[in-house]
Amino acid sequence: MTLRACAYPALILILLGVLALAAPSLDTNLSSRRLQWLLKRDTTMNITLVRDNAVLIAMRSWELGTLAEALTELEYPSLSVLASPIVTNVVDVYPSDVVSIAVAVLSAKPSWSLALISSDTSVGDPCSIGPAMLLANWTFNDASFSSAAYGQLTYLLSYAPRSSSGAISHRTDQVQLWSDFVYMAPPFIAYYGALADSLDLLQQAYNQVVLYRQELFDEDVGLWRHVTLGGWQDTNHWATVRNGWAAAGMLRVLMTIRGSTQASGVWAYQQPSGAILNYIDVDPASTFTDASSTALLAATTFRFATLTGDQTHAEAAARAYAFVQSSVDANGWLWGTTDVLTWSVPSATGVASPEGQSFVLLMQAAYDAWRTALQLEIANSIVF
Ligand SMILES: *[C@@H]1O[C@H](CO)[C@@H](O)[C@H](O)[C@H]1NC(C)=O
Ligand SMILES: *[C@@H]1O[C@H](CO)[C@@H](O)[C@H](O)[C@H]1NC(C)=O
Ligand SMILES: *[C@@H]1O[C@H](CO)[C@@H](O)[C@H](O)[C@H]1NC(C)=O
């Protein structure tokens, strides 16, 4: 057996830890009537339009990386790392629009740049495109993709600044840790490790998640802070992205820490509408709801429930799903998002959020997978 064949189980063993042992049976969590009710919810969104809009407006490094991941999960689920085992020999699926992103990034990259996006102020963000580069490598079989991925990995692991604890900085110019990093870099390291038969890389991906959690997770309230170290800090519990990126990133690395510790922290503050507030744990009157983070957190919770069978937060995610659907207009645009550069104000009127569009795709893909798994379980269960 090659190491690759056992890389995926090893990843699970290393990263899932106690989580795998704690998977509950279906009937311990939701009553059959609640389940039937949840499963009846059909989408009211035209997901094709949401997708086209996402492709239209993604431009910055992390927006392209998140879009590539969203398209992979939505359109080519068998190629996603959330399918198991990780496959590299599917011949009948060609992820053309993910490869297009890799091609565009590659043709814009100067040869001197190790990072996939040159002169980005972020270490982590360009790494989010790494998985698309690796996917393009083995589906398109062109070494320029794999050498670009190797360059990015080399910069990340050997050149980027690190904290004294060993956490890789999210910034190029100083050591500063942002919760966003958890979605951008460790999943790339882990995917590289799985494809390259490297347990060492899998371990490094996991270590970074642990180091980031040590620095940024606020045990008292069960939420992630946004930025620590460096020239300035941001200790607020922003929803968007800050808790959403971290939760979704950890999931992609299949982390050990029980999902309930990151996801339930957030759902405890869910609004009656189903939404999450931009500034999660303050008086609703002093902030605003954020449809983007609501979508990303719903996606993570559906994935977590599907992987572990723990449906504790499935209803909260289903309420969030309904809220997000009601925030998508007839033309496929998500409204009610947060400005992606300042985090503290709503997006300007008429300005859509590129990452928000992709989060809706991630949510729909996660919901579809969750629903399919539950229907299968119900069909096979003597309880129903
Ligand atoms: C669902 O199952 C998990 C694991 O057994 C348990 O910790 C959790 O409390 C359960 N949730 C509910 C609502 O019963
Ligand atoms: C979604 O919108 C596209 C483009 O307008 C249209 O072709 C398609 O039929 C719509 N799909 C659904 C399910 O309404
Ligand atoms: C790139 O693809 C080739 C051919 O499938 C494969 O041998 C190689 O390991 C891949 N490189 C990486 C870094 O995944």
Name the descriptors.
two-stranded antiparallel sheet; Glycosyltransferase; binds 2-acetamido-2-deoxy-beta-D-glucopyranose; 384 residues; mainly alpha; 4 strands
Quick structural gist:
The protein has 384 residues and is an all-alpha fold.
**How many domains make up the coordinates?**
1
Q: Regions with pLDDT < 50 over 5+ consecutive residues?
A: 1-28, 255-262
Q: SSE order in H/E notation? A: HHHHHHHHHEHHHEEEHHHHH
CATH class: Mainly Alpha
Q: Reading side by side through the largest sheet, how are the strands ordered?
A: 1-4
Give the CA-CA distance, first to last residue. Answer: 40 Å
| Proportion of residues in extended strands | under 5%
* Secondary structure category: mainly alpha
H/I helix tally: 17
Could you describe the largest sheet, including whether it forms a barrel? 2 strands, antiparallel
What shape does the CA trace take? globular
Under CATH, the topology can be stated as Glycosyltransferase
Query: What is the overall pLDDT average?
Result: 79
